[in-house]
Amino acid sequence: MQRITSLRSTTRSLRRRRNHWPLRPTNSQLALETLKRSIAGDDNPKHGFLSVLIDSYKTHHCSPNPIAYSLTIQSLARRSLFRHLEPVLNHLESSERFEIDECAFVELILRYGKAGMHKEAVDVFLRMPRFRCAPTSASLDALLRVLCASAEGLALVGDVLVNASDMRVRLAGSSFGILIGALCHVGKVGAAIELLGQMEVHDCEPDAGMYSSILHSLCEHSDLRAWWGSWSKCVARESRRTGGNGFASVGDFQKVDEVFDEILVTGLTPNVFTYNAYINGLCKKGDIDGARDMLACMVKAGCEADVVTYNTIVAACGRPGIWER
Questions:
Q1: Residues 99-127, buried b or exposed e (16+ Cβ, 10 A)?
Q2: How far is CA 23 from CA 14, 32, 203, in A?
Q3: If you write DSSP's letter for every residue of 181-204 in order, what string do you get?
Q4: Residue 1: which pLDDT band, with cuts at 50, 70 and 90?
């Protein structure tokens, strides 16, 4: 009985030791390591990087997989070896049938953009379905960042958005943010406001950065009177959505202050939503006296305060430390 117990114990010990032995690498893993060394060791192989890719796997009696192609594309893009990319992409498109991860194309688009190769970046995005890769807002955003960084790229944005729609790539909130920021940067604040109004149609919500960009552009580039109607509608819609905070959720209150001053200087009449946004900004920065004064000015100007106005001021007065001043 003792010998049987000892034998069982020895068997369990051998099993535990066997489980800790290192596993032998597969042919694909060996081929991938060979590929990494080959790509890193030569910037201009005699027969091109496509041959390096194929030969690395042929040596180990296996075929290139999606990881191998992604590695090759990303490695060449990072080293700006763009002239070697086309044979690899053409072979991937025509001779392989597996899917490629979107990350490889996102990096390639960004690298093309850094090199100022805007048309090549657009071409890669449009070709993605042919590589069995469904583009999403991630690759679209990468392309928009590239194009919106220069005047030459901005000229291509319209066609890209049309093609993206045909490819059923959905615009995300981040996509709108990139476009609005670019439009504001070049002083096209009217187009930025119109685009802001389209976000609701796409089930996207504006964020503080978008309002900040438009406010800054209104102060720097534009005639506020010309876009007052459109801007007021955007502020009203956002105020309803956020319960009255509106664009005062923007961290930089100084921009809000500048716009409000310009509203008054140009003779425009702020509505209750604009007043609420401004009062909310004053309360957030702790200027309760300023908020009360603005409420008085609001009433004097004939603009009736609503429940949001009073709730904002009352809530601010209830914060710790206010009554000790």
A1: ebebebbbbbbbbbbeeebbebbbebbbe
A2: 16, 16, 50
A3: HHHHHTT-HHHHHHHHHHGGGGT-
A4: very low
Instruction: Determine contact, residues 178/144, Cβ cutoff 8 Å.
Output: yes
Q: What is the pTM of this model?
A: 0.70
Residue 209 neighbours by CB under 8 Å, 6+ apart:
177, 181, 250
As a residue count, the chain comes to: 325
Distance of alpha carbon 163 from alpha carbon 304, whole angstroms: 48
Give the model's pLDDT for residue 258: 65
Give the list of residues 6+ apart from residue 321 with CB closer than 8 angstroms, or none.
none
pLDDT for 174-213, tens place per residue? 999 999 999 988 888 888 888 888 888 888 887 767 776 7
User: pLDDT tens digits for 38-64?
Assistant: 998 888 888 899 999 999 999 999 999
Q: Are 193 and 218 in contact (CB under 8 A)?
A: no
Distance CA 16, CA 5 (A): 17
d(CA 218, CA 225): 10
Give the helix, strand, coil percentages of the chain, each rounded to 5: 75, 0, 25
- Token pair of 61, please? 């009696």
Q: For CA atoms 94, 100, 105, 107, give the dihedral sign.
A: negative
Q: Is residue 77 over pLDDT 70?
A: yes
